[in-house]
Amino acid sequence: MRSTGALTTAVCGHFGELLQGRLGPAGPVVVITLPCPALRLRGWYSPGGDLRVHSPERLVWRAQARRFLALVGGRPRGRFALRPEMPAGGGAGASTAALVALARLAAPDCPPLELARACVTAEGASDPLMFPAPERILWASREAEIAGHMPILPRCEVLGGFHGPPRRTWPADSNFADISDLVPRWQAAAGAGDLTALARLSSRAARRTLARRGPADDPTEALARDLGALGIVIAHTGSARGLIFAPGSVPATGAAQLRAAGLRQIVRFTAGGPA
Question: InterPro entries given for it (predicted)?
């Protein structure tokens, strides 16, 4: 796509959720996401001709793209191509990243909250990848609403991969544990810069989801114990599994041990800290 007027973009994915659950027994599903700069979706746009969308993973199809572009006021014509570095159904934000890329290429002035609402209209749920610091909001993913604001996440390192089959998010799925008790603790620990406490809270949220939804043989906590991680992070509706470490403390054998436990597409990245 080298023709005159061609545009490119890249959207960072995420790596599961530090917290996910219901805000009260009958409340909305909310998340605090973990941005992952190591996993991106790249997009290209070239003007001319009828609308065409090239997405080998079928993250977005043409009819859906046409409806979505109408919502964000974007170009209804031209050629779009989308190439994710994360697996669909992995809990790394591939479907939301695809829509965000379309919007950035076709309607770059669309405000983040308006874009998020268009994403929810298009697919029923949305990760907060359209915001500049998504880990600093408590996101109601089915309503496209900011349910709260969070302090800066302390700097940390994450080592992880994908375990088991893809598990796509179904918008009507609300079978999640109540985490209303964890949210104020998260705010307090993040405000104090206490990475150890935050990793424990992320682990607690993950345990609640695994106990409720499985799989029963998930290896993540055992890996965390073996490798001395502070805690774990999981995709609560995907296959991403990660270990949280203080900066510079990831063991040299970590990636090999994750592979031996059956994890694939191993990633290591840094998260948190000032922008």
Answer: Ribosomal_Su5_D2-typ_SF
Specify the fold of 151-271. Answer: Alpha-Beta Plaits (3.30.70)
pLDDT tens per residue, range 225-253: 999 999 999 999 999 999 999 999 999 99
CATH class of 7-148: alpha beta
How open is the CA angle 56-135-268, to the nearest 5 degrees?
Answer: 60
Domain residue ranges of the chain, discontinuous segments joined by +: 7-148, 151-271
What is the structure's pLDDT at 275? 61
C-alpha 119, offset from chain centre: 14
Per-residue pLDDT of 43-72, as tens digits, reads 999 998 999 999 988 899 999 999 999 999
CA 140 remoteness from chain centre? 13
Torsion of CA 106, 17, 208, 178, to 10 degrees: -60
Q: Give DSSP secondary structure letters for 215-248.
A: -TT--HHHHHHHHT-SEEEE-TTSSEEEEEE-TT
Calpha distance 245→47 (Å, rounded): 45
- What contacts 135, CB < 8 A, 6 or more positions away? 18, 32, 33, 34, 35, 150, 153, 271, 272
- What pTM was computed for the model? 0.95
